[in-house]
Amino acid sequence: xxxxDGKKKLLQELRIERGQRxxxxxxxxxxxxxxxxxxxxxxxxxxxxxxxxYLKNGQKVEIEQVSxxxxxxxxxxxxxxxxxxxxxxxxxxxxxxxxxxxxxxxxIEDGEHVKEGQxxxxxxxxxxxxxxxxxxxxxxxxxxxxxxxxxxxxxxKRDLARDQDLVAQKLIPVQAxxxxxxxxxxxxxxxxxxxxxVELSQAALRNARVYLSYTVVRAPFTGVITAKAAQPxxxxxxxxxxxxxxxxxVGTIVxxxxxxxxVDVNEAYISRVTPDQPAKATLDAYPDWNIPAHVIAIIPxxxxxxxxxxxxxxxxxxxxxxxxxMGVRVSFESAKTANEPPPKGVLVPASSIVTRAGKSVVxxxxxxxxxxxxxxxxxxxxxxxxxxxxxxxxxxxxTPPEELKDGTHVAIKQE
Length: 415
Prior knowledge:
Blueprint: H1 5-14, H2 18-57, E1 61-63, E2 65-67, E3 77-89, E4 92-95, E5 101-106, E6 113-114, E7 119-123, H3 126-168, H4 174-213, E8 216-218, E9 223-228, E10 235-236, E11 246-247, E12 251-254, E13 259-266, E14 278-283, E15 290-303, E16 308-315, E17 327-335, E18 346-349, E19 354-356, E20 359-366, E21 369-374, E22 380-381, E23 384-387, E24 395-397, E25 410-412
Parallel strand pairs: 1-25, 10-11
Antiparallel strand pairs: 2-24, 3-13, 3-17, 4-12, 5-7, 5-10, 6-9, 7-8, 9-12, 13-16, 14-15, 14-17, 15-16, 18-23, 19-20, 20-21, 22-23
Helix pairs in contact: 3-4
């Protein structure tokens, strides 16, 4: 069908010449790298944002938590040295028997408080009861024999008196009176010997009763039973015998009033410690509790292998929470001048302070997030540093890892 003039004119306007087609193709090729680069930048930006969001809000960094502690609460003293050690008991005894025997009953349990002289256990005493009865019979026999000698002596003395009267009247010979005198002296000697026999039998009776008393085990002092070592029916001996079938103790008792602290001080710093020096003790179990203490004595010997000197520290504030063998940190204090102000701030482990963007910071554990705090570390006290920008009791990250940032999710490591 032939086209009219209007349609021919419209087709002529839509036609693209060869030169124009080549120009459009070249323009498209020039824009293609720009478009691809823009797409890549957008993808990378989205990926980085997603990764940052995952690290900040998804993945949790495992950390160890530690508490900031207040320095010495006494405004007139400051810590000059810190050392670690353990709580020890000066009066601790494994209670045993003084004789070998079979336990009839044990009247104690772990953790029980006992008084001095309280009965802890009984041994089978049938043998010792028999020995006491035998000794009592020996005493009775000796006393009866002594009474017989006393009666004979009294009769002999009366006979001597009569013989002496008869000799004076010359009715009997003098020899008869002398014979009676000898009889009296012999009976006196026998009676004296019998008195010693009575004393000997009485001593044997006392000895038998002492051994009988050994069958009752009593507490040597007031304290707490920390270990029950034997059960009824077991053989107990004051010394090791019979291999593993003989117990050498009934239980262990600790006098809680005798608790003190023993710490090892590096010999390079022992000159800073003196007897009666004030100190503060902090139990590992209660890091926010400062216990007043003072130095009892410096043991005059050094440990060659550790290059330390042992120091005894008294606990001035007794408390049921303080238990033997607990770990403890002791801060030895020094008296300050009247015009010198007390230290301000809190003590934190030196490992808690890290550098971020040229600043010293610590990270607070706030729920499941880490919060960054800028600090200015002050004086060092052993492995602790004094800082003023945070509060006592604040929970901090002990050793912040490199990836830890402000707001990072954290999880406390389980021991």
